[in-house]
Amino acid sequence: MLSNRVLNRTLLARQHLLERSSLSVPEMCDHLVGLQAQDSTPPFVGLWSRTADFDPATVSAGLEDRALVRITLMRGTIHLVTPPDALRIAPHVQPELEKIPFRKGFNYGAMVGLDPAEVRARGEQVLGNEPMSAADMRAHAAELWPDRDAGAVVQTWLYQLPVLQTPPRGKWKDNSRPVWSRVEPWLGAPLDPTYPLAELVFRYLRAFGPASTMDMQTWSKLTGMKQAVEQLGDRLRTYTDERGRTLYDVADGVLADAELPAPVRLLGWYDNAILSHQDRSRIAPDSRPVPLRAFAAAVSPVLLDGYLSGFYKIFPEKGVARLRITPTRKWSAAESRAVEAESHALLAFLEADKQPRVEILEVAADLRP
Description:
Elements lengths: L3 H11 L10 H7 L3 E2 L5 H9 L6 H8 L4 E4 L5 E4 L1 H17 L16 H12 L4 E2 H11 L5 H11 L2 E4 L12 E4 H5 L9 H12 L4 H8 L4 H8 L3 E5 L5 E5 L14 E2 L5 H4 L16 H4 L4 E5 L2 E11 L2 E8 L5 H18 L4 E6 L9
Parallel strand pairs: 12-13
Antiparallel strand pairs: 1-3, 2-3, 2-5, 4-6, 5-6, 7-8, 9-10, 10-11, 11-12
Helix pairs in contact: 6-8, 7-8, 10-12
């Protein structure tokens, strides 16, 4: 039986949140099976929190030379991944993405009645082999279906076609509007539909395990986890958690000492360390719901003693960058000093040209969505 604290320290160790790592950016992306990149800033914060002497220029260079890509993958959200992962994970994700636009709940039924195969074929013709902005795609959509919402048609194409975001979006300090390309012409290689789901699950466990099949499904939004576990056979071992649930792990996975100290870490909003388990009690204490709506407003997690213990947001102003923190429990004076020190370090990384200001507010009574 694994205690919650062992699961916590093991997750932090495998996420490189106990000690900053010497892995390169592509190596870190490969190990973590991608970094959450729904917005431009979070992958930089995630890498800064995990990597020693992180240079953000390496991400910009990787996007330019196509050694890194921003693509819709797990949970239907943008991830920063290596090209091999873009080519082999997309075929698993695409069938689920393609179902979304033709449901009645999608844009109030904007696509209901259209033939999905025809819409996809027209989208492939429009996007072709060169990157294109959403605005240009909307213009084509309006010509093809003048009686439909052109924005909904473009969203449909972005679900139906394996696409990625091209630079400059995603480069350091660049939040340009997305320009989209089909995956295969951008990377000069075909998608790989032969990559086994079981291998993807195995890699998830290396970075997030031990975990239940429900955790695996929450991370990926894919089905077939029980079959994948069965296929892995003796490459896995099993544990139980404090509630008696079965957890799977790679057979050679190292469990962390429950008494290991965990330094303060400030993560990016939507960081995968927070969102990749169905049962998040290993990192969010007391089963407190993670406030996804707040994350959408660039509100980000504070880890204290390894657990979600507060949220912060940065307010860049003229000449000043304010980092405001709302604890979710009472902190000791030593804990507050440690959070303040890490906050100043993050501001020096993100807003080096501004005067830093760190403000720790009163304990939040409730941060639920």
